[in-house]
Amino acid sequence: MINQSQETALTAAPPTMALQGISKSYAAVAALTDVSLEVLPGEVHALLGENGAGKSTLMGVASGTVIPDRGTITVLGETVDELTPGLATRMGIAIVHQHPAVLPDMTVAENIAVAVPERFLHGDRRAAMRGILDRVGCTAHLQDRVGNLSIAQKHLLELAKAMAVEPRLLILDEPTAPLDRDSVGLLFDLVRSAARQGTAVVYITHRLAEVRELADRVTVLRDGHHSGTAVVGDVTDEELLAMIVGRRLEYTFPAKQHTSGDEPPVLTVEGLSGDGFSDVSFTARQGEIIGVAGVLGNGQSELLRALAGLAAWHSGGIVIGGRRVNRRRLHRSSAYMPADRHHEGLMMSMSVRENAALTALDRLGAGRFVSRRREVAVVGAELAGLNVKAATLETPVTSLSGGNQQKVVMARSLLGKPDILLADEPTQGVDVGARAEIYRILREVSGSGVPVVVASSDAKELEGLCDRVIVLSRGHVVAELAGDEVTEERMIRAAIESTAHKRAEEHRTTGSRLSPVWRRRLEGDYTPVLILAGVMLLLGAYIYAQNDRYLLPFNVTSVMLLVSALGFIALGQTVALMTGGIDLSVGPLSGFLVVVGSFFFTDGHSGQMLVLGLVLMAALAASTGLVNGSLIRFGKFTPVAATLATYIALQGFSYLLRDTPGGLISTAVTDVITLTIGPVPIAFIVLVVLAFGMEFLLRTTRWGRNIRAVGSDEESARRLGVRSTRTIIAGYVVVSLFAFLGALILLAQLGIGDPAQGVSYTLNSIAAVVLGGTSLLGGRGTFVGTVLGTGLIVQLLNATTFLGLSQTWQYLFQGALIVIAALVYSQARGTGRTAESATR
């Protein structure tokens, strides 16, 4: 804490950031009303308030991700008219979000490259990135997929990115929620060090102990209004709580229920083992809450998932209410509140009502039909009992604060009338008022006879809430505490002093445990490339063994030309899928461009007409991409709807230009397009060169990283300063330009302007991209894999001829290969995820 002279100097310094009169509303709900905040150099300024008080919205304004309706933003004495995430980064503003702005489909190294400007990665980039991670205690490998990291490691990565840019203003939004004791200590040291160097720090938390330990001043928001600002040493905890909730809280934890010990247990766990834990046993009587403690990542979450029937396997016995239950029954009758509510606890595209009612639908109507009136009444009553703050039941759950989202998860759990309630970090990111309500509900549930098991990284929380606590270390129970033994000190001592056990997975002898190196290789984007290459070689060898004419120069040339036409179109489709979209119009666009070309590339036209035709075709292609991108970004169409509309329009334009095939293409033009070097067409060489060129751009340039970032998680990419709208529109223009290149090859192959041609290339291009390993969900894939996927499709078509099969077999083989490829790729990546989770 600062002394009096330091306080005077601090107050005299000009603010690093000043927010004056900030107001922000979403529809009819006011998130902020006339809020002001000043943060001074070298100051740790705590920002407190209940969930929904406006803290994250205010910091969204400060970091450029939220545009205020009114108010003034001043940074280093300069008034900023419109603060964007990119501008905020350039001005030295860094934020660690409560929900990390990470890109799950990209590696740790790629996440750092997207977020950290090049000037901070000078010299050996890998060494610089490793140093950035080591500074905050993040042990993740640079080539790990971020989607496979634990919640704590994702938060440490987020912190590492923020600290790497040496910010003038550092915003920390609930940074300690998922961290273990050691990581919290390291974080505090980093915050103090940054403040000593003149960095202004805004620290959002719900834990008053952290405010006392770190902060110089504190500002409180309540219901979107400024409730007060004070020097930390001048206010008591009771005064702060009164400012936060508008009343004095008489208690935090409800009274524990004392049992005689003679009652039969409502829950008995006998020798339970699974991935990440082994030989866990405990019992619970009615009214008791069981806590699971330990250093983060020692099997707590895995144990709760097994008790919820969500683990891939477990052994041992679980008895609830005197009846032994198996994994299937656990899955049906348990209520599980996951630590990662965004990815596991909520359906983020659905409303508050739909999320809360999901487990109780069978009780909300007759037969297979749900009564809307009963659903609204039951859900509304449950949410009101939990004091969920939402404009209406139809409000999207994404618009709620973190604490209110957690209450929705709890409401759904209670509405399901579970046999057992399992809560993993139930108050993570929840304000003090809501925390007391959650504790009360958990106590009432346990009192009703439903076993309650809570895992928490906050030992103080377990001490106040739980009647019995088991402490896990490396997946084993190293202590069981009951009654007066349940203290923070005993839990921490048991967790950190235990060294006698190995991890549960080390005792398993499955023989299938992968090394981290092989795991990363299986998860890599180039695994599909190797698989495809092997399949094509085996298939080619088989066809050649059956028919030695397969490798004649004529056939080689024909196959490569077919690959070129589809390959160019598929390369463009790869860009669309990489952004998380799709382009259904590429086939009709190629056919339309062939029809347009048939008016310019016929005999008797001059060279100027040929050039004009090429320019017109390219311009029409680019315009189509611009229309698709604009419909998606500005018209708010889904990619399927936008490109389907363009698909239909292009087909109509093709028939308007030529209702029947016509316009014979000049032989001189087709000869140039189909020119070969030996048996290899130059067009095929261009395709391969472009594929490798696009691969290089994808992996090494900001454009490539932005494409994958938007496809992986657009909101996180936007927070990191990626201009998602520009990226997606430019991406669809690139898609259409590749369709233009494919149309040139198609023009030479058809030799005539036929409005009916080209349509089939849409589905074939999607098939080629999927075979090549690009994810339909966006964010990951390869251009090289797409070329190989194209080659395999054409090879199958060619095989039906040389093996004397009907065309039906081509489609059967193609469909089977796509299904097999999807299974193989997902299994390879799933193996990596399983191995990763087992080592946490």
UniProtKB/TrEMBL annotation:
Keywords: ATP-binding, Cell membrane, Membrane, Nucleotide-binding, Transmembrane, Transmembrane helix. It is found in: Cell inner membrane; Cell membrane. Coiled coil: none annotated. GO terms for cellular component: plasma membrane. GO terms for molecular function: ATP binding; ATP hydrolysis activity; transmembrane transporter activity. Pfam families: ABC_tran, BPD_transp_2. The chain crosses the membrane at residues 526-545, 551-572, 607-627, 639-657, 677-698, 728-752, 758-777, 784-805, 811-828. It comes from the Bacteria. Its main location: membrane. Its EC number is 7.6.2.13. InterPro entries: AAA+_ATPase (IPR003593), ABC_carbohydrate_import_ATPase (IPR050107), ABC_transp_permease (IPR001851), ABC_transporter-like_ATP-bd (IPR003439), ABC_transporter-like_CS (IPR017871), P-loop_NTPase (IPR027417). It catalyses: ATP + H2O + (2R,4S)-2-methyl-2,3,3,4-tetrahydroxytetrahydrofuran-[AI-2-binding protein]Side 1 = ADP + phosphate + (2R,4S)-2-methyl-2,3,3,4-tetrahydroxytetrahydrofuranSide 2 + [AI-2-binding protein]Side 1. Residues 17-248, 261-499 form the ABC transporter domain. It is a peripheral membrane protein; Multi-pass membrane protein. Part of the ABC transporter complex LsrABCD involved in autoinducer 2 (AI-2) import. Responsible for energy coupling to the transport system. Belongs to the ABC transporter superfamily. AI-2 autoinducer porter (TC 3.A.1.2.8) family. The complex is composed of two ATP-binding proteins (LsrA), two transmembrane proteins (LsrC and LsrD) and a solute-binding protein (LsrB). This is Autoinducer 2 import ATP-binding protein LsrA. It comes from Nonomuraea terrae.
